[in-house]
Amino acid sequence: MSAEPKPDFSEFAEFADVLRKQRRRSEKLVRRALNRAKAHYPVPFELNLVSRALDNALSVVERAIEELRIQNDALFAARTEVEDAYAQFRDFFEFAPAAYVVTTPDTRVRYANHTACSLLGLRRNGLAGQLLISCVPLESRGAFRSALVRSLSPGVVSEWPATLIAKDGTSSRQFGCRMRIRAVAASGSSSPPVLYWNFTEETDEDLF
Predict the structure, then answer these.
(1) pLDDT mean over 78-103
(2) Hey, which residues does 176 pair with through a beta bridge?
(3) In this predicted model, which residue has the larger pLDDT, 40 or 107?
(4) What beta strand segments (E) does 49-141 contain?
(5) pLDDT band (50, 70, 90) for residue 1
(6) Which long-range contacts link 186-193 to residues 24+ away (Cβ below 8 Å)?
(7) Per residue in 111-157, pLDDT tens?
(8) Contacts of 55 by beta carbon, 8 Å cutoff, 6+ apart
(9) Angle, to 10 degrees, between the axis of helix 45-94 and the axis of helix 10-40?
(10) How confident is the prediction for the chain on average, in pLDDT?
């Protein structure tokens, strides 16, 4: 799995390098001034302060760079762990034995897993954006809509039998299934809920 590269701390490193150069230059000036001062006067206290201040500033910057690197490594490792877990969950969801579909309240498909596409005989780009109700036979759409309206309360899991149409090349077939639907409130208070569907084909064996 690809991951974004670590942030570049070159600016901090360049800043530290500049401080190091300034420190070396300042040390030369300080030593020169101290050598001259020693010949005639006591060692100026202010020059010692300058040297110490430079040392402290450089140490602070170097510690900050190291702390940022440690934090970046920890964040990078945590992100990699989350991405790996997401990839495993995505694969499990994609190839689950049940069909999973996410739609808007008017049943427009936003996402469908591999099982749903296979069960309905449609490719993913042929199902995304379509109305799921278009996969219901005309004579059953009234009952389907009525059941859907009763299922739009957020947090409520509804279940009802339904008949769907599966494409099979140039022909099609109908199959019975049990629809399970859950409406989840969207993040925005004024946004319509998102519908989570899952269903499996019912065979004669399921009736016993």
Answers:
(1) 86
(2) 163
(3) 107
(4) 99-103, 109-112
(5) very low
(6) 192/104, 192/105, 193/105, 193/152, 193/154
(7) 999 999 989 988 877 788 899 999 999 999 999 999 998 888 777 88
(8) 23
(9) 170
(10) 78
CB 174 within 8 A of CB 194: no
Give the pLDDT band of residue 199 (cuts 50, 70, 90).
very high
Which DSSP symbol is given to 107? -
Give the three-class secondary structure for 12.
helix
Residue 110 and residue 194: Cα distance in Å, rounded?
A: 9
Pick from 153, 154, 149: which is nearest to 184 by CA? 154
Q: 10 Å Cβ neighbour count for 52?
A: 10
pLDDT for residue 73: 84
Cα dihedral 144, 150, 153, 155 sign: negative
Contact between 130 and 101 (Cβ < 8 Å) = no
Side-chain half-sphere of 9: how many Cα atoms within 13 Å?
17
